[in-house]
Amino acid sequence: AQSVTQPDIHITVSEGASLELRCNYSYGATPYLFWYVQSPGQGLQLLLKYFSGDTLVQGIKGFEAEFKRSQSSFNLRKPSVHWSDAAEYFCAVVPGGYQKVTFGTGTKLQVIP
Amino acid sequence: SAVISQKPSRDICQRGTSLTIQCQVDSQVTMMFWYRQQPGQSLTLIATANQGSEATYESGFVIDKFPISRPNLTFSTLTVSNMSPEDSSIYLCSVQGAGGTEAFFGQGTRLTVV
User: Fold this and answer.
1) What is the mean pLDDT of chain A?
2) Could you give the CA distance from residue B111 to residue B11 in angstroms, rounded to a whole number?
3) Do the chains contact at B42 and A41, CB–CB below 8 Å?
4) CATH node for B4-113
5) In chain A, whose CA is at the least distance from the CA of B46?
6) What is the CATH number of the domain that holds A40?
7) What is the pLDDT of residues B31-84, one digit of tens each?
8) Rounded to whole angstroms, what are the CA distances from A58 to A55, A61, A106, A107, B113?
9) Pick from B31, B92, B108: which is nearest to A98 by CB?
10) Predicted pLDDT at B11
């Protein structure tokens, strides 16, 4: 069965520091890959997505993610974190069009001054 | 992208009662999805709602507890029936974009059962 693993439940970074959130998936073929962000009391907002092609994808709010087929990973990065980035981040996988979305367990990001 | 409006945004309900959550999309969509997010947890799919047919429920969720309506291509409701404190969660409505790939979400309904 397909699965998505986010090994870090909680991460704390200083404002201005770089960030990397890890995501690994288990699936036979390369699925569609996504990162979502959920601010407190809010729904989920799509940060970026990977379907095919260039393995480094740019998203909103200065985020990027790199797809590495050999590692079955799709890690999210940001070079300089802002206090407003404090939120929960979910990696998600869709095996193909109009199929069920599987979410990782989420990583809660805390940003300290 | 799709704009999804969910009502109510939050509610506090007595155990044993029912709450109906509404989801309105600004465009016609084939499938709508209902998720539950328990406190501190990830999203779990409750059911997929297609217009004109019965909803398809995931393992662990039943129609008697979570009846769903889908009267047209832009609207759906989820009812949480005979609520208990264990039903306290965020309930999210979702649709898939063109090509059925990325999911778009409403703001969610934060339900507290007392």
Assistant:
1) 92
2) 5
3) no
4) 2.60.40.10
5) A100
6) 2.60.40.10
7) 899 999 998 889 999 999 988 888 999 999 999 999 999 999 999 999 999 999
8) 10, 9, 20, 20, 41
9) B31
10) 97
